[in-house]
């Protein structure tokens, strides 16, 4: 088809018309006589003409005045008018269409007003402010202008611009005066989101202003989220000011103690119909595996130990299973006592402790069922029961402190297995509680020169977990002295590397507070000094997204060292821990870790899968899944085992079918490798954690808050996995139970004001970032409507699909109390 011929530029187009004679005559005679239009009396003017004179003319006059003087105004008005007259010759009146002229006037207006637009002024004010600050000049006049611009921005849905300007002129407090009930939520959302990208102390200041604004408008639930992020040291004691009535006090104390967690979790399980206990065979799905490895009976004690963990993870919190709680008179031979003794020595400890995991959060029933094992003659069984008591009470407080009363008796026993069980049990039961009583007793164990190394290490870990993020100097000194007094032979033991982790837990997320301790760590023996220094830095900046520290750790990873250096492993984990704070940083870290895989030394490659595991924990991203799948067949055994465990971590509690398929294939691929097969089983247990109702993510409240206890538990397990052969594959496999600190139901359960479950319709969809958007944009996309209770996957958000109730919290996850909407009327 031939291209259409282009008309020559000179030739007029069909539709164009020559300018009418009247217009050209007027143009020639410019200034000689007044326009005829102006001589027409108002009475004879048409409505369109009158509107032109009343609406457009004054506007053009203002524009002209802005340019300079009245003559300019008349000129502008005349020009627009004449142009309109030329266009409108077909009509009876030589008048421009009103909307055309207004459009032209707007164009002129915007062209002239662009330089004086508040946004442009804001940029210039920021530069001027900096200049005046540098030259020590007064800024009062500038601040008056800032006040006006902020006022303009806040009235015109431009909260982000207002906040940015106030940050530039270092006067965020001004914002509090200018927010009102219509825009405070958007302003606070922008403040809290931008705080992730601000340097200290600006980040804390932004959050502080958000807190002040929320309190000003009585939005207490949102203020509480900010207070938790600021770590304001909230007291959990219910006093008369909070609740005067004793009955209310009791109910509130129950909520604070998390007593309802088990009940709510089981309500969810019944609703989704997954109460039926599952056996490890249901998870392995051996019938789906073709050929070799379908019936592997290799190393049966190791296989039974793996089945113990799988059983514990899958039935966690359900209170019943097919191995440990099955009634003894049942026809199956795998009743509790029998299964326990199918494990060897330290395997029995993990088997007894698994009962604690199965009865998770159900303190009364759990303590009753574990009590019988405390009277066993086998020290491993007693040790496991003590650890189980710690696991059962994890995350649930009790005013009677039963765990403390029972476990304290066993700390001083002679048998080191029993001592470790009691000590680790205390660490898990009271993680984050900062109990002074524990500090006294466990510090005594740390300071005792007669304590075996393993007892000493677990005492330090327990103290680190109980006082996580507290920056407690006394405990830090106890751990430092314990490290300094160790002999050469002891420093060569792999388990010793958990001591720096315990020290780092005290400063988890506390940034520069770690510096004094980090200086001391440089004086340690060179075998542990560098390891300690890197571990301290990576934990102190965990969850902060600090780019400079990530660069520093990448620098450490880029060095090529001789064999025997171990401190690059924690550096790789550190990159992931710091970058996990926000989505963008996490994606960048995944790419950096890919580079480390290509160019890094062997000890770096061994840590990369674990780092990927923590970056995407309980969030199976396809690209990370593929990388780990590739690494799970790596020639280096440590790399492949770490990749297998990490496949379990990224799929933890998701029942992800693709990962489950990968792990089934790996179980047949490694059917002759006992260690690899053990890792595959652990990963299978993690993927089906709580039959898909649990998550290991340390973030909650819409990924805004980070739980230090959950992160502390994950960090401890990951550091133990850096040397699997001597920890998890050795006799310290019960370290895996520390992961219970990060386990939470990924549910939304709505209750009424009497805390009774209430089923309401909710929309669940992918969360959309609406920071800085005007109006009320949709916060979720691709949603489905369900009735509560519902499951929330990673990156999902829920919102109520009814106006009958009002939620008492801005973020719908976990337990949400609803109150009736007084303005709702059923149609």
Describe the structure.
This protein has 827 residues and is mainly alpha-helical. Among the domains are: 120 residues, no CATH class; 200 residues, Leucine-rich Repeat Variant; 74 residues, no CATH class. The protein is built from 38 helices and 11 strands. It has a 4-stranded mixed β-sheet. Strand 10 and strand 11 form a beta hairpin. The radius of gyration is 35 Å and the shape is globular. Belongs to the proteasome subunit S2 family. Acts as a regulatory subunit of the 26 proteasome which is involved in the ATP-dependent degradation of ubiquitinated proteins. This is 26S proteasome non-ATPase regulatory subunit 2 homolog. InterPro entries: 26S_Psome_Rpn1, ARM-like, ARM-type_fold, Proteasome/cyclosome_rpt, RPN1_C, RPN1_N.
Radius of gyration: 35 Å
**Kindly, what is the distance between the CA atoms of the first and last residues, rounded to a whole number of angstroms?**
62 Å
Q: Ranges with pLDDT <50 over ≥5 residues?
A: 1-43, 59-95, 329-336
Oligomer: single chain
Broad CATH class of the domain at 545-744: Mainly Alpha
The CATH architecture assignment of the domain at 545-744 turns out to be: Alpha Horseshoe
Whole-number mean pLDDT: 81
Q: Widest sheet: strand order?
A: 8-5-11-10
In terms of structural class, how would the helical and strand content be classed?
mainly alpha
Percentage of helical residues? 40-55%
Which strand-content bin applies to the residues?
A: 5-15%
Describe the biggest sheet?
4 strands, mixed
At the fourth CATH level, what is the homologous superfamily of the domain at 545-744?
Leucine-rich Repeat Variant
Shape: globular
Q: Count every beta strand, where a strand is a DSSP E run of 2 or more residues.
A: 11
* CATH topological fold name of the domain at 545-744: Leucine-rich Repeat Variant
| Number of helices in the DSSP assignment | 38
């Amino acid at each position: 088809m031939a291209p259409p011929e282009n008309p020559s530029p000179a030739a007029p187009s069909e539709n164009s018309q020559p300018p009418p004679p009247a217009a050209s005559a007027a143009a020639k005679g410019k200034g000689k006589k007044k326009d005829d239009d102006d001589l027409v009396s108002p009475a004879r003017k048409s409505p369109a003409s009158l509107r032109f004179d009343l609406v457009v003319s004054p506007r053009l006059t203002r524009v002209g005045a802005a340019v300079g003087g009245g003559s300019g105004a008349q000129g502008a008005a005349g020009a627009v008018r004449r142009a309109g007259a030329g266009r409108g010759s077909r009509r009876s009146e030589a008048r421009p269409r009103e909307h055309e002229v207004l459009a032209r006037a707007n164009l002129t207006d915007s062209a002239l007003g662009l330089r004086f637009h508040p946004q442009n002024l804001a940029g210039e004010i920021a530069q001027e402010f900096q200049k005046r600050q540098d030259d020590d000049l007064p800024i009062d006049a500038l601040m008056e202008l800032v006040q006006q611009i902020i006022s303009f921005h806040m009235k015109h849905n431009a909260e982000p611009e207002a906040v940015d300007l106030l940050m530039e002129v270092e006067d965020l407090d001004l914002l509090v005066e200018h927010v009102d009930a219509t825009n405070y939520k958007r302003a606070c959302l922008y403040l809290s989101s931008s705080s992730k990208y601000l340097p200290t102390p600006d980040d804390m200041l932004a959050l502080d202003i958000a807190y002040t604004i929320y309190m000003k408008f009585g939005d207490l639930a949102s203020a509480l989220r900010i207070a938790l992020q600021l770590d304001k040291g909230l007291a959990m004691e219910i006093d008369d000011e909070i609740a005067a009535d004793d009955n209310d006090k009791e109910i509130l104390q129950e909520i604070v103690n998390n007593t309802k967690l088990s009940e709510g979790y089981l309500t969810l399980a019944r609703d989704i119909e997954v109460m039926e206990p599952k056996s490890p065979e249901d998870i392995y799905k051996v019938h789906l595996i073709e050929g070799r490895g379908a019936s592997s009976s290799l190393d049966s004690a190791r296989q039974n130990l793996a089945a113990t963990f799988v059983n514990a993870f899958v039935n966690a919190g359900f209170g019943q299973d097919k191995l440990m709680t099955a009634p003894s008179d049942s026809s199956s031979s795998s009743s509790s006592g029998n299964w326990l003794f199918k494990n060897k020595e330290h395997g029995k400890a993990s088997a007894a402790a698994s009962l604690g995991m199965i009865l998770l959060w159900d303190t009364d029933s759990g303590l009753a069922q574990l009590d019988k094992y405390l009277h066993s003659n086998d020290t491993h069984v007693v040790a496991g029961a003590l650890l189980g008591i710690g696991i059962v009470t994890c995350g649930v407080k009790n005013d009677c402190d039963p765990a403390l009363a029972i476990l304290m008796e066993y700390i001083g026993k002679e048998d080191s297995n029993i001592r470790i069980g009691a000590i680790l049990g205390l660490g898990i039961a009271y993680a984050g509680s900062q109990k002074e009583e524990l500090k006294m007793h466990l510090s005594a164990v740390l300071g005792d020169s007669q304590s075996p190394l393993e007892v000493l290490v677990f005492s330090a870990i327990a103290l680190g977990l109980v006082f996580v993020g507290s920056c407690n100097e006394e405990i830090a000194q106890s751990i430092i002295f314990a490290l300094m007094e160790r002999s050469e032979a002891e420093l060569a033991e792999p388990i010793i590397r958990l001591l720096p982790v315990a020290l780092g837990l005290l400063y988890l997320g506390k940034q520069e507070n770690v510096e004094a301790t980090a200086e001391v760590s440089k004086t340690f023996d060179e075998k542990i000094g560098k390891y300690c220094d890197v571990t301290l830095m990576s934990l102190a900046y965990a969850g902060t997204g600090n780019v400079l520290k990530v660069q520093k750790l990448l620098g450490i990873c880029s060095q090529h060292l001789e064999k025997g250096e171990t401190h690059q492993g924690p550096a790789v984990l550190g990159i992931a821990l710091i970058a996990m704070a926000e989505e963008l940083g996490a994606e960048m870290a995944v790419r950096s870790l890919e580079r480390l895989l290509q160019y890094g030394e062997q000890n770096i490659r061994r840590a990369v899968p674990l780092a990927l595991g923590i970056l995407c924990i309980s969030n199976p991203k396809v690209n990370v899944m593929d990388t780990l799948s590739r690494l799970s067949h790596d020639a280096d055994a440590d790399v492949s085992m770490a990749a297998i465990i990490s496949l379990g971590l990224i799929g933890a509690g998701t029942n992800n079918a693709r990962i489950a398929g990968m792990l089934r294939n790996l179980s047949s691929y490694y059917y002759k490798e006992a260690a690899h097969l053990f890792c595959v089983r652990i990963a299978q247990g993690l993927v089906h954690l709580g039959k898909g109702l649990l998550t290991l993510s340390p973030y909650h409240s819409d990924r805004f808050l980070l739980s230090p206890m959950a992160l502390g538990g994950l960090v401890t397990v990951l550091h133990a996995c850096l040397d699997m052969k001597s920890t998890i594959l050795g006799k310290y496999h019960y370290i895996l139970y520390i992961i219970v600190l990060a386990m939470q139901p990924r549910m939304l359960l709505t209750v009424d004001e009497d805390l009774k479950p209430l089923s309401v319709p909710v929309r669940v969809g992918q969360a959309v970032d609406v920071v800085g958007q005007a109006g009320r944009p949709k916060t979720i996309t691709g949603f489905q409507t369900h009735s509560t209770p519902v499951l929330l996957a990673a990156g999902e958000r829920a919102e109520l699909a009814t106006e009958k109730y009002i939620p008492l919290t801005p973020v719908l996850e976990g337990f949400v109390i609803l109150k009736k909407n007084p303005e709702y009327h059923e149609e």
